[in-house]
Amino acid sequence: DDEFYAPPECPVFEPNEEEFADPLGYINKIRPIAEKAGICKIRPPPHWQPPFAIDVENFRFTPRVQRINELGIHTRIRLQFIENVAKFWDLQGQVFKLPHVGGKALDLYGLHDSVRQLGGFQDVCKNKLWNTVCNKLSLPKNFGTVLRQHYERILYPFDIMKSGGANLSLDNVDFFSNQSVSPESPMKRSKRKPVDEPLFADVSNNKELAKLQLFGSAGPKMVGLGLMAEQKGRMRSYMSSYPSEIKVENMEVKKEDIASATVSNPNVSSYLYNLLLPCNNTNVQKNMSHQRGHCKNSNIIKLMCSKDSNDSLLLLCDGCDDSYHTFCLIPPLQNVPIGEWRCPKCIAKECNKKTQAYGFEQARKEYTLQSFGEMADAFKSEYFTKPVHMVPTEAVEREFWRLVGSLEEDLTVEYGADIHVIENGSGFPRMCDAERRQLSSEEEEYAKSGWNLNNLPVQEQSLLRSISGDISGMKIPWVYVGMCFSAFCWHIEDHWTYSINYMHWGEPKTWYGIPREDAMKFEQVMHDSAPELFRHHPDLLHHLVTTMNPATLMNKGVRVVRTNQCAGEFMITFPRAYHAGFNQGYNFAEAVNFCPADWVPVGRQCVAHYRKMKKTCVFSHEEIVCKVANNPSSLDVQVAAVIYRDMLIMMQQEKELRKQLIDLGITKADREAFELLPDDERQCLFCRTTCFLSAVTCPCKPDSLACLYHVKNLCSTCNTTDYVLRYRYSLDELPPILHKLKQRAEAFDTWCDMVNEAFKKTSDKLTLPELKVLLSESEEGKFPENDLLQRLKSVVNEAEICSRVSQQLVNTRKHRTRCCLTLNEIKAFYKQLQNLPCALPHLKQVSEYIENIQDFIASVEVGLGKEEPAMDEITKLLEDSSQFDLDLPQIPLLHQALQQARWLKDVRSHLLLEDPEDEDRAPVTLEQLRKLIDDGISVAPKQSVERAMAELQELLVLAESWEAKARDCLTNKVQVSITGATSITDKAKQIPVALPQCAKLGEAIKKAQAWLNKVKSVQNQDYYPYFEVLEALSHQARPMSIKMEQLALIESQISSARSWKEQTSKIFLKKNSLFTLLQVLNPRVEISSSVGAKWRKRKNRSSIDDQHLEKTNKSNTNLSDSTDPIKVVAEFKEAEKKEMEMLILLRESNDAKALGFFDADDEDAVLYCICKKPSSGKSCFMLQCEVCHDWFHTSCVPLPKLNNSKSRVSILYELKFLCPLCHRSRRPHLTTILSLLLQLQRLPVRIREGEALQCLTERAMSWQDKARRILSTDECQNALQRAVKLAGDTEGVEKNNSRRRKQRTSESHHPDDEKKLCKIERSADVVDEPRNSIDDAIDSNSEAHSTEETMEAAEALAMFATFNHPSTTKSQLESMMLEGDILEVSLPETQNIWRILQATQ
């Protein structure tokens, strides 16, 4: 099936209270619209909500079982074909498996049908059309060989069997290739590569295949997937079970016959013999006259094989007891099959049997509404894996039609369909229910409602009320309990009646409908889709078991509509409107048929159709008509008129048929009350039509009768003169009945005649008011809504519209609006006026109006024929055209000419051709130029227009080319120099078009020239430019679209300078340093709490502090903005002095704070450390910085690094603490700094950090020289040696002198110094837990000291206390120590001075 897509929605009607009061009247009112769709939906007014009258607890039913994929006609024909093929092989004792090709099951039916359409297997092989077969099956072409092999093995023997073996040749079938068939080796195969998939497999344990019975064995219902049918029965050995005596007709075989048969067709395979001829065993037939090895048949005798018979390889047919060799079969059998086996004749007989009609089975379980609802909801919820109310109807609809067309998925559902109301009760309240219980006022109201389906079929306007018996399903409703996917297939109602369905409650029911006009087209599509099914079952569509995807029908040209019927809604199906559908979920519906008056002619057509199809009627159409006609006074006018016409036709047909009986010599006649006979006793023997007016019986078959249409088919032995006519009414009794009906419908018929006569007149027509009088008479007489009345209303409406239009055309109006009418339409309108069945005024004026239009057209053609029509003339013609309210083809031509003139004027204006001396006007832009060209395209072609267009195109191409070049330059697609860019702009200025990209390129050229000037001015200065200046120039040049040759040099210089800065930063700055490189190298010009705030920020990470510190860093970075090196050095010297002065003041302030000399009101005076908190007292040990003399908590700052290799005395002696604010960098050795300065001298760039490093180096070297002079005095040398001796370091002086010598002679520092530096930095970053005393700190690094060492340390400290130094020298050393400690350079002299000063403490 085609992929499903939703058909259009059917009409939906919502009657008001007044319309809803008359059910059949409202249905008749909407019939002209709804009948075109076949079905419609009616939503009752909101207040109409009947109570549910079913006894839920006692309502029990047994549903039908539906297998969804067997409903589809395409699926069923494929399944039945596979079943037939499986049966064919199963009867031969061969198990069957559906092969797989390309990873999916092979469509055997499609393969067979495709080969059949291409001429058959032999033609496909001969013409090499297997690639075409692959295309038809949507398979790659490389599967052609595989398809041929499958067809040879499975389908071609099946084709031969179906055709009876006639006119078939097996030349192309390669069952046996170069093989010698013998009893010893009966199954030597050909050299052809076999198909990968095995033909046979065991499916004995498959439950699905057990559902379908194939002649005593389970056949594949869903064949494939590695399944085979179970073998049953027995296989009898020829020698053990064949009868001892067999009577065989003595036939003589001549060698000449065998030779002639072989010569005439040497390629004939033994399979043709195998189809008809059994092999005879010589042991059994030893007393027979014919020779061993011959095969017999009733008509011919031919030689089956030339080998000796093998008793163990002879098969006995379980159907006809003929015997065959296993190696004479096609395909040959390797072994004797186990189980039943049939010969080819029996196989053909069984496979050609007519299949039984498909039908639904009854479920084995009985349900209540509660149990069925639980099962249905659980099924839907589990299938869609979500609650039932959350499954969209569109998803259920797509899934249903997918399942219908699926061969692999076998989904089974249950449907409580056609449940009788008489036995189980109706969903509507009924008056008969009052016999069992008292009805409430509400129930009584709905029990009498016309929309109650128990009342609708027997209303006055419904002809079913004349049927005395209760016809369940037609006159008595049926109820339906549905679940998800339960379906009702395509069908029409019995006798093509109306039907109405009401949904009491539950999930929606999806409907599909086809209008009556497409019924035959639908039937033809169904027949063409499965001709085999209709060949065996012509009345297949009457069984309600076959459906087809609406998408397939719509693709075949059948109109289909759909809708979802929700709870509380009615569905109406019209006569012969095929409809189908399925349930979205658990619901409860009720349906019944009804027959209003307009159904009568359709019902008669249905009886004729049933007669042709030999379908049994549900009731007699003639009986209903006669019963209604016998009581004309109670009939509605519409019903009386319809019955009168139908009875008139019926009477005429009856006269003709009875006349034919007289011609046949039937003269005997008896009256018969057919209405008293059961329907099955008055059915025609041939067509099964229920007889009422008359029938014919035969003396030899008194219980059988035939309708008058099939008298000749009644009996083949009796003479027609012996037949007896059984009649209900004589021909003389029918006219009086017809006359009474005519009297009732006379007024209506008279009116119809008057209307028909009015429609037939060609002259002296009635006027429009006279037609309106006829229309008013129909309303006063309440005539039925028929086609004639509808036509009259349509004519009156059309005449009124034509009258208004004609008046509009001929009358002069002040304000006219042009309509869309053309001259041909006006002429057609004039012809329409002439063809109206009534006379209208203004007919002559319309004729004159047409003549005026033709004169105007002639003048326009003359004006447009001139080579250059004048503007005034065109304008005048356009003004004249306004008097005609229609659309003339000449008017657009006039507008075209006017448009051409205006466009040419615009071109001249924009290109300054009209006033070239006007210099104030701006040139045309590209947008304007393109707009002129676009406007010119819409202008009608003309020589001047085309010439102007060519000039504009040339100008646009030239302008766009220069604009593209400028754009490429601006977007850096093309690197161009200033000279090249200037050339582009100069040439672009010669074009009289404003080019924005060229203008931008000109601006870029100006910027590039200004940048070059800046570079020249920078390069022409007396000093190298600063790094920041070059970086700014680089930033300016990068976005420029002009190629700058100097930019590469500048960026190279910037890269070298940046590399030097990064290297210097790595040497000087600590990890996660709080200071920038420039801050470290420059003297501290400001001693504030900002650095302490930085240290605290390390723990708090405040965004506000971050912003503040960033500003502080920027403000304290540069000491000077001067470019003169002399000024830079002078400012650095000045900063050194300020740093010393501020440090001295800071020391005094911190010393005073430690001694308690501070203002009591000053809260900040008692705050210490970087944390700015007061002293912790004795609970926490604090360290004093040797530079700023401030005190720091051991928990806030890292402890000084202690050397574990030295003694306890040396540790105490050398212990020195500098706070993080005073010890700001790694303090590299002077040799490392000198190497950086050497690299700096090679750079042609001035770096502020480099200048600061030069000043720092000069300051350090100056301090070093000063310190050496002081330390070289005898007094300091003796003091140093004594201090070293007291500290226990006997080699201190020598080491110091040696270190000093090494530093002066070596330019590179030792790697161990780097390791120590990293080690010190790591220890400084990790803050240990606070210690209570310096002893604890020392003990943590030196865990084992002897008592003697402790005594030595105490003596040393006592000796330090007795050491004195002159106050002048000491003050000088302290000043030198302070200056050395603030230098960010490692110098050995600082350690020597520290030792001397330590000894004086």
TrEMBL record:
Composition skew (Basic and acidic residues), residue ranges: 1102-1113, 1304-1314
Location of the JmjC domain: 445-611
Protein name (Swiss-Prot/TrEMBL): [histone H3]-trimethyl-L-lysine(4) demethylase
EC number: 1.14.11.67
Cofactor field: Fe(2+)
Predominant subcellular localization, coarse grouping: nucleus
One of the record's GO cellular component terms: chromatin
Keywords: Chromatin regulator, Dioxygenase, Iron, Metal-binding, Nucleus, Oxidoreductase, Repeat, Zinc, Zinc-finger
Single GO MF annotation: histone H3K4me/H3K4me2/H3K4me3 demethylase activity
SUPFAM superfamilies, alphabetized: ARID-like (SSF46774), Clavaminate synthase-like (SSF51197), FYVE/PHD zinc finger (SSF57903)
Gene Ontology process terms (BP): regulation of DNA-templated transcription
Family (UniProt): Belongs to the JARID1 histone demethylase family.
Domain PHD-type per the UniProt entry, residue ranges: 292-349, 1166-1225
ARID domain ranges (all copies): 75-163
Subcellular location: Nucleus
Record-annotated membrane-spanning stretches: none
Organism of origin: Ciona savignyi (Pacific transparent sea squirt)
Reactions this protein catalyses: N(6),N(6),N(6)-trimethyl-L-lysyl(4)-[histone H3] + 3 2-oxoglutarate + 3 O2 = L-lysyl(4)-[histone H3] + 3 formaldehyde + 3 succinate + 3 CO2
Region feature (Disordered): 1098-1120, 1287-1314
JmjN domain sequence ranges: 10-51
Organism ancestry: Eukaryota, Metazoa, Chordata, Tunicata, Ascidiacea
